[in-house]
């Protein structure tokens, strides 16, 4: 896979030389190229932005500079990815789809963002797909942080990048749709806290069941939106019992919060029983 990142701060992407992504680049598993947008400017000030039409605060990145850069970087086609707070949420499913593509180009905006005509134009270019994505409901100073996140989320899914592929299956937001179970290592006792006994038992079936139960409960408590999205056909009877204890039941083929237990009505005096008399 090839990934190009275009930015006015190439140094911001230096962490991509580290850890698994850096090793993937060295091993030839990932062709990652970082470009300085200012290399495509034509004036002596290397200007990449200008004031917004219609007025308002901040500056907007110029479409002509971006167009020159992207015409070159996307010459053979590819998927243009634009980080923006107004984009679709970046999820694990998104990362999985992108990991199957050949060429990704990340356009890192700054200031008030990139002129909207850039995305609009490249949606009409044959061989180019455009997606605008967001890390979450908050605002950053630029797209570089989002580019770092996207590159790592995608690169770790490429064959050979992660040493044990099984870890990609069991982790949070994996194919099961659950958060990952809690993990422990040595020493078995620390600060008055012990590792759950089942993990020391060596009984693989019990350990697998415990991990599944913990993942179900953790997801129910922390991410009810993920519980609602679970495929109930993939839940066994034990799964349903665990979820019911965590406050979720299956109704009409989907998981919903269990109804609150009915509260008992206040007791009333039996007919003919003497009523409390007011104090004298």
List the defining traits of the structure above.
single chain; 280 residues; alpha/beta; Alpha/beta knot; Trp Operon Repressor, Chain A; 2 domains; 5-stranded parallel beta sheet; two-stranded antiparallel ribbon; 9 helices; globular
Structure description:
The protein has 280 residues and is an alpha/beta fold. It has two domains: 2-163, 3-Layer(aba) Sandwich (Alpha/beta knot), CATH 3.40.1280; 189-257, Orthogonal Bundle (Trp Operon Repressor, Chain A). The protein is built from nine helices and eleven strands. The protein has helices at 19-27, 63-73, 92-98, 116-122, 144-155, 166-170, 204-222, 224-228, 237-245, and strands spanning 2-7, 31-36, 49-50, 60-61, 78-89, 103-107, 128-134, 189-190, 193-194, 248-251, 254-257. The strands form four sheets. Strands 2-1-6-5-7 form a five-stranded parallel β-sheet, covered by helices on one side. Strand 5 (78-89), helix 3 (92-98) and strand 6 (103-107) form a beta-alpha-beta unit. The radius of gyration is 27 Å and the shape is globular. The N and C termini lie far apart (90 Å). The mean pLDDT is 92.
């Amino acid at each position: 896979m090839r990934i190009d990142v275009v930015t006015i701060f190439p140094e911001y992407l230096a962490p991509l030389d580290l850890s698994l992504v850096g090793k993937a680049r060295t091993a030839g598993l990932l062709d990652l190229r970082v470009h300085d947008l200012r290399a495509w400017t034509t004036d002596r000030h290397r200007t990449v932005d200008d004031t917004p039409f219609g007025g308002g605060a901040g500056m907007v990145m110029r479409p002509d500079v971006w167009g020159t850069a992207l015409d070159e970087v996307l010459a053979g086609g590819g998927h243009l990815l634009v980080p923006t707070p107004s984009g679709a949420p970046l999820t694990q499913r998104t990362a999985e789809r992108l990991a199957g593509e050949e060429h990704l180009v990340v356009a890192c905006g700054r200031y008030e963002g990139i002129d909207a005509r850039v995305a609009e134009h490249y949606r009409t270019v044959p061989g180019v797909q455009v997606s605008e994505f967001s890390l979450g409901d908050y605002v950053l100073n630029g797209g570089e942080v989002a580019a770092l996140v996207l590159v790592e989320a995608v690169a770790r899914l490429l064959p050979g990048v992660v040493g044990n592929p099984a870890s990609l299956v069991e982790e949070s937001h994996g194919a099961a749709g659950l958060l990952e179970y809690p993990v422990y290592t040595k020493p078995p006792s620390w600060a008055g806290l012990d590792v759950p006994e089942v993990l020391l038992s060596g009984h693989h079936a019990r350990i697998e069941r415990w991990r599944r139960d913990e993942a179900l409960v953790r997801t129910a408590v922390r991410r009810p939106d993920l519980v609602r999205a679970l495929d109930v056909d993939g839940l066994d009877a034990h799964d349903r019992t665990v979820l019911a204890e965590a406050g979720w039941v299956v109704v009409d083929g989907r998981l919903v919060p269990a109804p609150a237990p009915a509260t008992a009505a206040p007791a009333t005096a039996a007919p003919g029983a003497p009523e409390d008399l007011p104090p004298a």
